[in-house]
Amino acid sequence: MCGIVGYTGNKQAYPIVIKGLQRLEYRGYDSAGIALLGSSLKIYKKKGKVSALEKDVIGKDLEGNTGIGHTRWATHGEPNDANAHPHQSQSGRLAMIHNGIIENYASIKQELLLKDYHFTSDTDTEVLLNFIEDVQYNNECSLEEAIRIALKRVVGAYCILLISKDEPETIYAARKGSPLVIGVGDGEYFLASDASPIIEYTKEVIYVNDFEMAIVRPGELILKNLGNEKQTPFITKLDMELAAIEKGGFEHFMLKEIYDQPDTVFDCQRGRLLPETGQIIMSGIDNNMDMLINAPRIIIVACGTSWHAGLIAEYWIEELCRIPVEVEYASEFRYRNPVINKGDVIIAISQSGETADTLVALENVKKQGAFIFGIVNVVGSSIARMSHAGAYTHAGPEIGVASTKAFTAQLTVLMMMALKIGYAKKTIAYERYYSLMVELVAVPNKIRQIIKNVAGIQRIAKKYKDANDFLFLGRGYNFPIALEGALKLKEVSYIHAEGYPAAEMKHGPIALVDETLPVVFVATRDTYYQKIVSNVQEIKARKGKIIAVVAEGDDVITHIANDVIAIPDADELIGPLLNVIPLQLLSYYVGIEKGLDVDKPRNLAKSVTVE
Ligand code: F6R
Predict the structure, then answer these.
(1) Domain coverage including residue 66
(2) How does residue 220 score in pLDDT terms, banded at 50, 70 and 90?
(3) Least packed by Cβ within 10 Å: which of 8, 291, 301, 440?
């Protein structure tokens, strides 16, 4: 949610900052802006995507070895040029970009208005910047000290990059609750919300912690906490290749990431899932096995697509490990007063590892002594670092705003986890444990087969692209897949869609069914197959248009449905990992048929770092 990027060194900052913004655009695309500092301070900003800014700066003065840039997901103030970052202080001396929300900005603004400050935007960022300037005047202190004093007053979340005309080579950076990575180059520094703008220049990075500030200038990096105590920067080596953040010949990141799934599911299993020795090796679980097998309850906390992965895990863990599981929306859980008992284990699922609601929900239960197991994709992210133990999903950077490959990687980790705990707890026999391992190993190839039949899915997308609504139905392990199918379609095609347990449809949603409504059934061969056949008939009787995801060789639903997507057969527990793929492709192609920007759907952002 908002991307920030900065550079200081001996190169021209503009090309580095603008490229960084392109890489971070998935975090927000309401507006983009840059501030360049050299012989003078130049600020350019524009409503819309980074490409609009690039057009706007043609022919303008882009000189400067220091620069900061911002791509915005609007919170305070509508998306327009004035609310775009960077903001400039009233004196014109300072420029700042910000990711996060200053919750007490209104009271600070009141104080500043009384002192005759004027504001040119509706943003909380401009308030914070002028507050920093005001603190510096009042205290006659250094800018560094003023930032520290001001940030101690701030309630909310921030990552800021601030530059001053008085120090043309320096960037001041600070964070609380919003991510910040610093790339260490040869006498130069790259600052960004995540590593994607940094990776092509250096693999040495520092993850800045909450309540820390960094002062960087060519050849010098000083890290301090807000108490002005020096901190030792801890340099980490990035395990990421440039190719992973490029489209690699695909028209969109979303399509590339759907096609990446045979590899990402395999990468997630690599070195962990070893049917040849009957082992699943995951150190985060091995080191905490006693606690996990004895957990009286598991609570899964997540948002969006990650929450759907959690719902499937609930079915799996209860089935294989016989441990009661609750799945919670982090945004609700954080404001409840949940009962956490001794021994309860919290599983946090997050692609970005930065989702504000999940992060705060975890902080709350951590204070109550709960053990937190993080299932996270972005290495070094806040949730990964605050978990007691965990397992990375190793899906690589996910750039399409709609989550695809992160979801199947989360499911892979969760299934391995359930198998491992269930086997250690003796709630599943070796034969079942082993056969599910083998089934899991087969998933990448089966995904490849599904993708080969993409033409049929494209045809269905074309046929139904003008529908106003969609219904997605599934039972058991496939109910969360129905929810995920509906979410994907909403996100990238703007068609209203609902996911429902197929049997529950009779209790209300069936009233929606008429000859204009496409109903997608996830109806592969499982325990509920006969039941779902009846549900399909119920829709057919009411003239709904049936699109069915079925297992190859299906000869019942295939003859009832209007359109069929046949996919390889699998054990019903493993099915969700395959069944979601045609739904991802369907959403993608409906979005494309409608001419929409599937990688950057309106109003969304990849990493939701505000509550
Ligand atoms: C949907 C999607 C979102 C995220 C949600 C949680 O396609 O991407 O619903 O799943 O915002 O994000 P993470 O997993 O980063 O915590």
Answers:
(1) 3-244
(2) very high
(3) 291
